[in-house]
Design brief:
With 127 residues, this protein is of the alpha/beta class. It has two domains: 49 residues, 2-Layer Sandwich (Signal recognition particle alu RNA binding heterodimer, srp9/1); 56 residues, Roll (2,3-Dihydroxybiphenyl 1,2-Dioxygenase, domain 1). Helices cover 17% and strands 33% of the residues. The protein contains two helices and eight strands; from the N terminus they run βαββββαβββ. The two termini are 24 Å apart.
Length: 127
């Protein structure tokens, strides 16, 4: 039987200002805004991964990094130090200092809405 399920096509983030958040991903993380309809914005990364940014409803509740649910977006980079420095220079809010786990380099920061995002550089890709 052929495989039917190909994988994630996109992940959605609800935002009080979807256009501004889409522009943040474009301006800070080199995504491109590839589709928009009725106030919903799709942004695509260089590797093809995609986010849909939709209008939110209600107030944002406080969140912690390990609360239940989807907790972060990991952004793959080739040059960790250069990417980290560029975000620092642009005034991005960092939640952690850069650190290493099993040879992988990471740093957590906030996107334009305060969602948890992190840079990751792996010396060996996951299987």
């Amino acid at each position: 039987m052929p495989l039917m399920f190909k994988g994630l096509e996109h992940t959605a983030i609800a935002s009080p200002n979807p256009k501004a958040l889409a522009e943040w991903y474009r301006d800070y993380l080199e995504f491109r805004i590839n589709h928009e309809y009725d106030g919903n914005f799709f942004v695509r990364a260089q590797n093809g991964s995609m986010l849909e940014i939709i209008p939110s409803q209600g107030e944002r509740k406080p969140e912690a990094m390990k609360d239940p649910g989807i907790r972060h977006l990991a952004i793959e980079v080739d040059d960790f130090d250069a990417a980290h420095a560029q975000l620092r220079e642009r005034g991005v809010k960092f939640y952690t200092d850069a650190f290493e786990i099993k040879g992988n380099r990471l740093v957590f920061f906030a996107d334009g809405d305060g969602n948890y995002v992190h840079l990751i550089a792996r010396p060996n890709p996951l299987p």
